[in-house]
Amino acid sequence: MGGCLSQGRCQHFPMRRMRLCRRGLKRRLCGVMENLKIVLGGIDMGLEHVMMARCYLTDFYRDYAQFNETYQSFFPKERRPARTTIGVTGLALHALVEIDFICKRPD
Predict the structure, then answer these.
(1) pLDDT tens digits, 34-74
(2) Contact 12/20 with Cβ under 8 angstroms?
(3) Given 35, 37, 50, 92, which is the most exposed site by the fewest CB atoms within 10 A?
(4) How far apart are CA 87 and CA 62, in angstroms?
(5) Taking the C-alpha atoms of 42, 25, 50 and 41 in order, what is their torsion angle to the nearest 10 degrees?
């Protein structure tokens, strides 16, 4: 058994150095999740291994409903990881959303 803690990921394009996606929240969140899937794939893990997520939004009240709906679509209803979502005053590179995961390898 083992686990990992992913570093925080924001919505930069995976193949373009630190260039942020400038579109709406849904597209940015999808970019974050795709980046996290790439990181997890590099250690033979996937979203099914996520036990907990920490999510940070720079405009919590404006973005939470759309964030919640989009985020949940990445996980089956019967197997959503624990999650904390926090409003913050700023993120690196002026990102709107950042997420990190705690994951567990199967026994």
Answers:
(1) 889 988 998 899 999 999 999 999 999 999 999 999 999 99
(2) yes
(3) 92
(4) 10
(5) -10
Token pair, residue 96, equals: 């709107």
21-38 confidence digits (pLDDT tens): 556 888 889 888 988 998
Looking at domain 3-104, its CATH architecture is 2-Layer Sandwich (3.30)
